[in-house]
Amino acid sequence: MTANPLAPSWLVVPDDANELAPAVWPSNATRAAGGELTLGGVTASALTAQFGTPLYVVDEADARARARDLRDAFDREFARIGTDVTIYYAGKAFLCAAVAEWMTGEGLAVDVCSAGEFAVALAAGVDPARIGYHGNNKSLAEIDNAVENGVGAIVIDSPVEVERVAAAARRHGRVQKVRLRVNSGVHAHTHDFLATAHEDQKFGITLDDAPTLVSSIRSHASLEFLGLHCHIGSQIFGADGFSESAARLLAVHAELRAGGEIAELNLGGGFGIAYTTADDPTAIAVLARQLADIVAAECARLQIPVPHLAFEPGRVIIGPSAVTLYEVGTVKPVSVGLDDGSSAVRTYVSVDGGMSDNARPALYGADYSVRIANRVTDARAALIRVAGKHCESGDIVVYADYLPGDVQPGDTLAVPATGAYCWSLSSNYNYLGRPAVVAVNDGAARVIVRGETIDDLLARDPGIGRGTRKAQTAGDHDTNNTAASSPDSQKAS
Amino acid sequence: MTANPLAPSWLVVPDDANELAPAVWPSNATRAAGGELTLGGVTASALTAQFGTPLYVVDEADARARARDLRDAFDREFARIGTDVTIYYAGKAFLCAAVAEWMTGEGLAVDVCSAGEFAVALAAGVDPARIGYHGNNKSLAEIDNAVENGVGAIVIDSPVEVERVAAAARRHGRVQKVRLRVNSGVHAHTHDFLATAHEDQKFGITLDDAPTLVSSIRSHASLEFLGLHCHIGSQIFGADGFSESAARLLAVHAELRAGGEIAELNLGGGFGIAYTTADDPTAIAVLARQLADIVAAECARLQIPVPHLAFEPGRVIIGPSAVTLYEVGTVKPVSVGLDDGSSAVRTYVSVDGGMSDNARPALYGADYSVRIANRVTDARAALIRVAGKHCESGDIVVYADYLPGDVQPGDTLAVPATGAYCWSLSSNYNYLGRPAVVAVNDGAARVIVRGETIDDLLARDPGIGRGTRKAQTAGDHDTNNTAASSPDSQKAS
């Protein structure tokens, strides 16, 4: 089959539009005997029957394995160069109690960047000493609360935070470990390595300013300087940016050692994943080896001991582990005129979620893949666009993929690689309740975040008296999605 | 003062960086004697003291006046050409019980596009016969629920919906009024008027297909065809797009009259507002006159009676009525290199909200304005960028404006024109609770949507036992923001 002229150039016409490309699906995603998608041993139909759609499904074993494999690879490679490493799971990608437990269970520490994320981590039993706290504008209350609860380290983002954290530490009689966030001038996602570290962004300080700030940190008895921190971007496919950034940071790190030993270097996160088969991120094991090599080489050149290393991956661990299930509501072939006067057909497949459960296509133009989950079919592949149900033309879930041309209302669609920054960024746009998150493992499924009912959405509106509800408000979004019923939903008429 | 070379070309250096430009502020926004911002007669300091920050503040009298003035203008102009008009408030812009009451109180009908929006409207006491129901993918349950509850009209968006709505109407023994959404080929926001109506988007059908669909609608005894519906875009500043679209629709409308009278024509919404002083939307009174003129002229040319008209504005009514208040946490001057080798300073002012309470800058690159709310100052103006507190470099609230250069931590900032698509699109990214919405009127303030506490955010996580909370989780976001305490927040440690 030839490509549809409306398809983007990167999109390959698949030999089989039912195939689950291993690079973009959780490792335990398979087709059952009848062709149905199975996730962690649970069929899509069992999941949708029990929990409804839309539904986030996380493969627990897959997420744990990615965490473990990443930690193992970094442990091994950095042991090779004579040091050790701490892996912080970046909670902003997706955090709930279950995920925090999985990550700590696999030996990871946890990164948070707000009072809310910190509260989740603590409530999930994460050792506060194994929590790192980020943010360009932590509130005084957040800093105080973090210090009081024994947070492992705070990443200082601006000069004013030195004083704020020092004061909080004094108040609570603690010596607070801190990192200093610097900009290395490396923007890995744009392949733009600036000559200077003067960056037009809200985070961190310039490398030039680091010595002054580190002196300031060292002047406080209530602070312990752990080392520099840098984050060069997100969804990065290769090691070049990290290498360049590590070299720049280590040069300053070496200078700063004149004022005292520095335990650590934190190179942040940003490791990319495959959302489509066109994406080709460097394997984590290779990345770990390259990063260890560059750190070893730079430290040798600078004649300094190799520091303890820290990294903060989120997406690369949880992103590929989840799949979103939707139900198709409408299928609409749209004839689009081409420049040569001819036309081609793009089929809009509308589902029962959209930009409220996955903002990334609208927010970043992010591409995703899609497959029919409830069946396989030999129908000729057609170029489709998966649209959401929101009242907005930019509400797209998958800009372009090929699906069997007989995709129809009632089919279940599965969009892979939705574990990171989908639930995190979800909204209630158009008063759609956010879907439940279900973990699958070894043939069993359990709710790890309850879905929202319409009653949940109305609960904060004081103008809506409980007794004045005039109508049954059951929609698709409040059937079955509730592991624990809210007090409101039990009162629903 | 000369412009900062980092400023966008549209941004004018203000004579007074404290001034509240009438075009972008609610009509009852003033500076009190001491210089403090006052909204609806309530000072910013009184609002933040009682409700905390971030905070959405809606000027009730302003919103009502915009609704009333719009309705009056359209009534007057369409009466002049011998017909009448229904104005539907587009609930997707911002809907809660209070706003629904204001809109219906000013004689507007209400547009919804989901079971949730419909539930809010009903619970707020909106007459279902005055509700229009939109959506490219209404679920069967949504259609059934809408019909059962006597919804005024359903906008049919695809062929399959004809059968779905007809079946629901039969089931409930009703004759359901329906509109048919068509694409006119006019994209007003891009000034791109396509020669054909074949549009590469999820909504509606082509004008060419309208006769077939209308025949299908008319073949059902359970459906009553009201007329065509079109929506040409959003944030539109002039009448040209509406005029072109109206002409195209009326030509088909005239053809369709061969098969029976057609009561109405619905030209949708999309009227733009000023987010900055560089925005210059056509005044509503002028737009109403131009639209009435084009409809009258086209009907005369086609020798058909002028139909009843309907419009669906949202943003133009509620957008300018609200202001978001934030507290400044950090102020960071960043030196940015210019092409000529020199550099200029952009000051990053970080606030306690961000893309979670206003996604539009990140989502659409939307520009906003900002002023210091708690004081006026003669300090020389500086180019600032207001950044949020999320762990994401794209988390910007105001890309560029000039503020007095002595803006400092603890100041309250006010961002105007945040009434539409801010609360609607809000998220809990980084576990930030969504701010409360407060209505101000005549010197009094009341909560119309309660803000979220951290406990609200954790309530759907079954892994977080109520008894296992290990820490005080109070952050900025859960102080005072709660008009009605949730059961959880009362249990907070």
From TrEMBL, chains A, B:
Its cofactor is pyridoxal 5'-phosphate. Transmembrane segments: none annotated. It comes from the Bacteria. Residues 460-493 are annotated as: Disordered. The modification N6-(pyridoxal phosphate)lysine is found at K92. Substrate binds at R315, R360, Y364, E392, Y421. One of its GO terms (molecular function) is diaminopimelate decarboxylase activity. Pathway: Amino-acid biosynthesis; L-lysine biosynthesis via DAP pathway; L-lysine from DL-2,6-diaminopimelate: step 1/1. PROSITE patterns: ODR_DC_2_1 (PS00878). GO terms for biological process: lysine biosynthetic process via diaminopimelate. Pyridoxal 5'-phosphate binds at G270, E312, P313, G314, R315, Y421. Keywords: Amino-acid biosynthesis, Decarboxylase, Lyase, Lysine biosynthesis, Pyridoxal phosphate. The active site is at C391 (proton donor). Residues 480-493 have a biased composition (Polar residues). Residues 75-318 form the Orn/DAP/Arg decarboxylase 2 N-terminal domain. Belongs to the Orn/Lys/Arg decarboxylase class-II family. LysA subfamily. HAMAP family: LysA. Specifically catalyzes the decarboxylation of meso-diaminopimelate (meso-DAP) to L-lysine. This is Diaminopimelate decarboxylase. It comes from Subtercola lobariae.
